[in-house]
Design a protein that fits this description.
Layout: E1 11-16, H1 20-33, E2 36-42, H2 45-55, E3 59-63, E4 65-66, E5 69-70, H3 75-81, E6 86-91, H4 96-105, E7 109-112, H5 117-128, H6 139-152, H7 155-165, H8 170-176, H9 181-195, H10 200-209, H11 222-227
Parallel strand pairs: 1-2, 1-3, 3-6, 6-7
Antiparallel strand pairs: 4-5
């Protein structure tokens, strides 16, 4: 939602989040702080991209996972739409893999969605001031053990585990990743060996425990959701 009555001075913020309560709370808190103004909110990447292009904000505060995709996969496009914007990602489950990928793609900060709204607002202002934000308790896990674990498991092995974590069948995963089922089994076997487990479920559980892959939520049946 664009806001025609925003103040032209000061820091300009675009919020992209499909959780209306959080988005509204953040908008109110940022506006009340008086150091920045929320010039637009969006509930999807498509809406967010349009808002960023239109408003050229100082900071884009975006949820990592949105209904039409993951924000860290389109950071290049977001920054191309507004080259001077800095991007702060909100996430409920930061893994080494997703966090490192986000920073490598050009994110300027990462903040947990479980933080109080006041902490998220402060992170926005710090990113606007030129800081790179990483939660303190994640620094070692993201930048330390991530190097070791990411070397241990190949990107393809992580792709397989992440797809399996979503509950897909081996046949479906093989088709999605454009590989034969034999190749998939080879990747899975190597991943199991490296993780020290003996079956597929154990590999997914251990990779999730280490923060190498994200736990997947079941897809929402929009037809059923509309009936609620």
């Amino acid at each position: 939602m664009d806001r025609a009555d925003h103040d032209g001075d000061g820091l300009r913020i675009v919020i992209i989040d499909d959780h209306e309560l959080l988005s509204s709370a953040l908008q109110i808190a940022i506006d009340l702080d008086h150091r920045a103004t929320v010039v637009a909110t969006a509930a999807s990447l498509a809406e967010g991209m349009a808002a960023v292009h239109l408003h050229q904000p100082n900071v884009v505060l975006t949820d990592r996972r949105l209904p039409d995709g993951d924000a860290d996969q389109v950071l290049g496009a977001l920054r191309a739409a507004s080259p001077r914007s800095r991007v702060l990602l909100m996430t409920g489950w930061p893994t080494e893999r997703s966090s490192m990928a986000a920073f490598e793609a050009g994110a300027h900060g990462l903040v947990l969605k479980t933080e109080p709204v006041s902490k998220i607002v402060e992170a926005v202002l710090r990113v606007a001031a030129g800081e790179v934000i990483v939660p303190v308790d994640l620094v070692d896990r993201i930048f330390g053990s991530a190097r070791r674990d990411r070397r241990a498991l190949s990107p393809r092995e992580l792709d397989v585990l992440e797809a399996l974590a979503a509950g897909e069948t081996a046949r479906a995963v093989a088709a999605e990743l454009c590989m034969s089922q034999n190749t998939l089994r080879n990747h899975l076997s190597r991943a199991m060996l490296k993780l020290g487990v003996h079956d597929r479920l154990g590999a997914v559980a251990e990779a999730t425990r280490r923060g190498l892959i994200s736990p997947q939520l079941p897809a929402v049946d929009e037809t059923l959701a509309d009936r609620r």
